[in-house]
Design brief:
Layout: E1 2-3, E2 6-8, E3 11-13, E4 20-25, E5 30-36, H1 40-55, H2 57-60, H3 64-93, H4 97-106, H5 108-117, E6 125-126, E7 133-141, E8 144-148, H6 154-167, E9 171-175, H7 182-194, E10 201-203, H8 208-217, E11 223-227, H9 230-242, E12 247-250, E13 256-259, H10 265-276, E14 289-293, H11 297-309, H12 329-345, E15 348-351, E16 370-373, H13 380-383, E17 390-396, H14 399-406, E18 411-412, E19 414-418, H15 422-431, E20 436-439, E21 454-455, E22 458-459, H16 464-469, E23 472-480
Parallel strand pairs: 1-5, 8-9, 8-11, 9-10, 11-12, 13-14, 13-19, 14-17, 16-17, 19-20
Antiparallel strand pairs: 2-3, 4-5, 6-7, 7-23, 12-22, 15-16, 18-21
Helix pairs in contact: 1-8, 3-4, 3-5, 3-6, 3-7, 5-6, 10-11
Length: about 500
């Protein structure tokens, strides 16, 4: 097996206690690489390296334009290595090679975008109401950013943090998921090749329950950027609050894909399939609830089931595969448990509902594309994040009922609307409590558009102009130009 090392302070190192763990291929169910299993002391040295790099002239004295040029150089290397990194991600987390190549080939755009934004960060001169005083603001980096990322789109979700954080002038300690660390370590080598000063980007690998809290609570960390489940996000938020650290949290979702009676049926069917069966449902924006107007409910369900039956399941490294494996063994067990819960609650199984046994699946961790109909809005299958290829279809009678059902969860990450009415589209986009609303499309993202959640789906925004603000702090500067100091006992 390939043996990886961590990146700390510009050096490739083992864990201080030499512990490792295996990473498994979800399609074959076998281990293929060894990853360092970091402990608290490894976190300490990574944070120390990041803090030292933040203050070193090789990084802190760089002009914003020079910092942008360095990020562009990294983006060029990423473009060259995109397909190689996509192959590693598919082996490590089981996502479709077609999707991973698309992600990796598109990913450099985040770095080009924020590289261009690096020297566009400007303060303000304020026409202050105090005579004899000049007031202006500065936008400054926060310091050391801890980026904690999940296993479902490892490099993309890391990029949403690293690109704006680096453009703003911060340094990074990145802890990838223990289930998808190999691609992160390969990614880290490109920062080194691009010429980033040692310690600007550090990568520590290991288990969240062993090093996660230590990283979040570390006094040398100035900001937390986390993507993952809402329960873990809650813990991260609570720990960060002890030292008043700013956080960006992109958490879970139970997104509604709403199909109105005037929708183009075939397009809506494709959109619902895209929302839940693409990436095997292992995405925070999964449209895991399909809300369908009762007048078209039977026809829509028939068309959806017929289309979903044609999905090609199997080897994710094949270009023609459409549904790949579940990334982790614990997640496989969780999905199958939720299917049992849905059956027990009285939902009607229309498709799938068990572990896939197709010969194309080999020894991998697969769940059949699963559809439940006649789901009640308060059933657990309609309220809790499954994070797998399991769709709950809920009928509705009116626009008002659709809004009530769609907003009736603790989450608010995304929503889809399928309609030919511009009035309805605009009304729904206003009334849905979600950070992203797609109209007649689904799962579209861009480096230019902000992404984040309402309610328990998170805090802050990633991508777009909003993102760089998450990694800056504003300073107000006052300069007396009057030449005299007024009464020192009275506030000026």
């Amino acid at each position: 097996m390939k043996k990886y090392q961590m990146l700390i302070g510009g050096q490739w190192v083992d864990a201080l206690d030499d512990r490792t763990f295996d990473t498994e291929n979800p399609f074959t169910g076998t281990a293929w690489a060894q990853i360092p299993r970091a402990g608290a002391r490894d976190v300490d040295r990574a944070v120390a390296a990041a803090a030292q790099a933040f203050n070193a002239p090789s990084w802190s004295a760089l002009s914003a334009s020079a910092r942008g040029a360095l990020i562009r150089r990294f983006a060029d290397l990423l473009t060259t290595n995109a397909d190689r990194l996509a192959d590693i991600e598919t082996r490590d987390n089981g996502k479709l090679i077609a999707e991973m190549r698309g992600q990796l080939r598109y990913m450099p755009q985040w770095y080009y975008y924020f590289a261009g934004l690096a020297d566009k960060v400007e303060g303000r001169v304020i026409p202050i109401d105090k005579p004899g005083v000049f007031n202006f603001t500065r936008e400054e980096p926060l310091g050391v950013v801890a980026a904690i990322t999940p296993w479902n789109s490892p490099l993309m979700l890391a990029t949403w943090k690293l690109a704006p954080a680096l453009a703003a002038g911060n340094t990074i300690v990145w802890k990838p998921s223990e289930f998808s660390s190999a691609s992160a370590l390969e990614f880290g080598a490109l920062f080194e090749e691009a010429g980033f000063p040692p310690g600007v980007v550090n990568i520590v690998t290991g288990f969240g329950n062993e090093i996660g809290e230590h990283l979040v609570s570390h006094p040398g960390v100035d900001k937390i950027a986390f993507t993952g489940g809402d329960r873990t996000g809650q813990s991260v938020y609570q720990i960060a609050a002890r030292s008043i650290k700013p956080v960006t949290l992109e958490l879970g979702g139970k997104s509604a894909n709403i199909v109105f009676e005037d929708a183009v049926l075939d397009d809506a069917v494709k959109g619902v399939v895209s929302g839940i069966f693409a990436a095997s449902g292992q995405t925070c924006i999964a449209g895991s609830r399909a809300l369908v107007h009762r007048s078209i409910y039977p026809a829509f369900v028939d068309a959806l089931v017929a289309f979903a039956r044609t999905a090609r399941i199997g080897d994710p490294s094949r270009d023609d595969t459409q549904v790949g494996p579940i990334t982790t063994r614990p997640q496989l067990a969780k999905i199958l448990e939720y299917i049992e819960i849905a059956n027990a609650e009285g939902a009607k199984l229309a498709l799938g509902g068990k572990r896939a046994t197709d010969p194309a699946c080999g020894e991998g961790w697969f769940v059949e594309p699963t559809i439940f109909t006649d789901v009640g809005p308060k059933m657990r299958i309609a309220q809790e994040e499954v994070f797998g290829p399991v769709l709950a279809i809920i009928p509705f009678e009116s626009d008002e009922e659709a809004i009530e059902i769609a907003n009736g969860t603790i989450y608010g990450l995304a929503a889809g609307v399928w309609t030919q009415s511009i009035t309805r589209a605009l009304t729904m986009s206003q009334k849905l409590k979600a950070g992203t609303v797609w109209i007649n499309t689904y799962r579209a993202v861009s480096y230019m558009s902000p992404f984040g959640g309402f309610k328990r789906s998170g805090i802050g925004r990633e991508s777009g102009l909003s993102a760089i603000r998450e990694y800056l702090q504003e300073k107000s500067v006052w300069i007396d130009i009057s030449g005299s100091v007024p009464n020192p006992f009275v506030q000026r």
